[in-house]
Design brief:
By secondary structure, the chain is an alpha/beta fold. The chain has 8 helices and 7 strands, in the order E-H-E-H-E-H-E-H-E-H-E-H-H-H-E. It has a 7-stranded parallel β-sheet, with helices on both faces. Strand 4, helix 4 and strand 5 form a beta-alpha-beta unit. The longest helix is centred in the middle third of the chain and has 28 residues. The termini are far apart.
Amino acid sequence: MTGKLEGRKAVVTGAGSGMGRAIAVRFAAEGAAVAALDLDHAAAEATARTIVEAGGTAHGVQVDVSDSGSVTAAIDSSVRALGGIDVLANIAGILDGYAPVLDTSEELWDRIIGVDLKGVFLVTKATLPTMLEGGGGTIVNMASIAGFVARGGGAAYTSAKHGVVGLTKQTAADYGAQGIRVNAICPGAVETAMTKKILEDGEAAVIESINAVPAGRHAQPEEIANLALFLANDESDFIHGAAYVIDGGWTIV
């Protein structure tokens, strides 16, 4: 590790598992003090414990990113624990089982939009004042190839991820001159416990399209963490409002 985030204070949502956990661990390994946020408090604390046992600094914090009160409390707790926030990674997200419109209930729609889009908005809004007071910061949002194309998710998930790409660009435009950089990551299929269940339960055509990517495999969470690290540190200083596709070639075929 090269200390690319040495001295930085980072908040990572969805840090209890999958890509969020990999990103939190990688940020800490690169020198950041990390607030690991997750709906599952025990999972958040487990990630923090892993970081501390490796010699890093971390705190586990419970949050429901779809609830403004919970978000405010979690960010306030993170600021107290870390002494500020320089980096925010909005990674928390859920899938919709590739449900098309007619199979998407209003409850499912609200739940997906609430976590995957509203959650990014709420956490960003709660974090920006601290970043601005500190002179700037970097925000990395988890979008998806479903933010660009169909078949990356169902009606709700695809709509939410298109929204995340738009929110990323607008936030970058609004706050870039004040030292805030905002970019998005758009993965294809990533090998996590959550996506494994979708693949097991999903329709054959969807599974076939995922398995046929030119790379011939799914991404590992650590590969997504590599991109998150790049977008969070000063090497990407001239990158504002970008949405990086990392999909093994899924969207080119």
